[in-house]
Amino acid sequence: MDWSPPSPRVRELIRAGAEVALDAKLEWLEELDRASLAANPAIADDPELAAAASRTNRSNLLHWAYANVRDPGAPVSANVGAEPLGIARDLVRRGLDERALDAYRAGQNAAWRRWMEIAFELTADPDELREMLAVSSASISAFIDATLAGIEAQIRRERDELTGGAHARHREVVALILDGAPITRQRAQERLGYRLDQRHTAAVVWTEDPATDARRLDRVADALGRAANTRPLSILASTATRWVWVATSSPLDYDPLHDAVAPHPDIRVAVGRAIGGMDGFRQSHVDAVTTQRMLSRLRSTQQVVHFRDVELVALLTADQERADSFVRDTLGELATAEPELRRTVHTYIVEGCNATKAAERLFTHRNTLLRRISRAQQLLPAPLEGSSVHVAVALEVLDWTSPAIGA
Prior knowledge:
Layout (H helix, E strand, L loop, with lengths): L7 H15 L3 H13 L2 H4 L2 H24 L11 H12 L8 H21 L3 H37 L3 H13 L6 H8 L6 E9 L6 H15 L4 E6 L2 E7 L7 H7 L5 E10 H21 L6 E3 H10 L3 H12 L7 H12 L4 H8 L3 H14 L8 H18 L2
Parallel strand pairs: 4-5
Antiparallel strand pairs: 1-3, 1-4, 2-3
């Protein structure tokens, strides 16, 4: 861009504003992320992409702010570091193109609104404000343009690299099956080297840590194959995500999978139902992706989770605000009671409100259990006898969402 140095006073103001931006409040960063993700559901719905977009937002903010602390008002070079170029790889491996980068324009608008607030806090002089905002607007626009151009160039390079090789062919066939395209089973099997006329259990193996060793993900995918005593079909969905399918003629032995993920707390596995045929190949994957998204949305720390365990919760928490309201209205003060009391009530309901069976399952005395149930009755808004189903569902939701509800 054409650049002429701002006045010394405005340089001081820009430097002061950049120092504020370097110490940005959490609410500013969250607002930046919300704006970016709202502009592109394809990124927002993918936990790994959403995390990468958040890292890129912060990287861009720090890059621009540091530059303006060093040389206020001067042109800022493009940010083509690890975060922006990393998201380029992930976009390509999901079949997304440059249009996904529109999200950063929305983030730019959110950042500009915050920058104007900073400017008005630093000076009330109209001439200083006019010059400061004019220089800043040109600087931010040129910086974002240059950064997006760098990411777009990386996307083209990644696409060229991806269009050759077995991985690209396998990913293409899987995409056709998942999209319901009219590819024949025989042709799909030949190209994948994987039989489709069997029962399949799909899984998503992923991490939100960009620095993880990708080979660890492959080892977890292999462990899923050992759980099924068969060779898995593993697709490189992105640098930090694997889509996996295994044939499941009998129940899986999940011990190898748990052993594989236990040393790596950043790696997560979402497992779908076992379903037969090409439709089952597709539906089990949908189950796994639904589970993955729910875990990421609710920030669960569980490492291996099955769709059958979260199906109801995933449905209820699709609208998080309504789910929170349901839990509070149903449980009342029990929602914030100690976990042991909530676990006792849930077990009591699951055992058909049979105190003896519930006490045996919890390895506690029947009288102790009855005292806990009596305490819970005092905390519930309505008697347990007439609301046990709703209470059980609310407790199930709370078990997954308690960090969000307690916030």
